[in-house]
TrEMBL record:
PROSITE patterns: RHODANESE_1 (PS00380), RHODANESE_3 (PS50206)
InterPro entries hit by this protein: GlpE_sulfurtransferase, Rhodanese-like_dom, Rhodanese-like_dom_sf, Thiosulphate_STrfase_CS
SMART domains referenced in this protein's UniProt entry, alphabetically: RHOD
Protein name: Rhodanese-like domain-containing protein
Annotated signal sequence range: none
Pfam families: Rhodanese
Domain annotation Rhodanese: ranges: 14-101
């Protein structure tokens, strides 16, 4: 079973340097994403696993939590400690956490 975390729990992990992948489409990511989140569209997750470290938790985020739950499930089945962020980027922004715009992970 995939672990689902709320936005506040995710925020604490993020502050500690958590690995975050955003599984939305590039246009969604550019419109606003969690600082440091790596863009890995849902359709590319199975191919992207070779670039993910297997020794730490991977936090998966999307817009609301549906696609991230799917991706986290796939990653969990492949042996990763994957955690889906409930509420997604929408919940993150609504809670007042920073959002980065553009195509870079930490764009200004």
């Amino acid at each position: 079973m995939v672990q689902e975390v709320d936005v506040r729990t995710f925020a604490a992990a993020h502050a500690d340097g958590a690995l975050v992948i955003d599984v939305r489409e590039p246009f969604e990511y550019a419109a606003g994403h969690v600082p440091g989140a790596r863009l890995v569209p849902l359709s590319t997750v199975p191919r992207a696993v070779r670039d993910l470290p297997g020794d730490r938790a991977v936090y998966v985020i999307c817009a609301s939590g549906n696609r991230s739950l799917t991706a986290a499930s796939w990653l969990s089945q492949m042996g990763f400690d994957a955690r889906s962020v409930a509420g997604g980027t929408t919940g993150w922004a609504q809670a007042g956490f920073p959002v980065v715009h553009g195509t870079r992970e930490n764009a200004a």
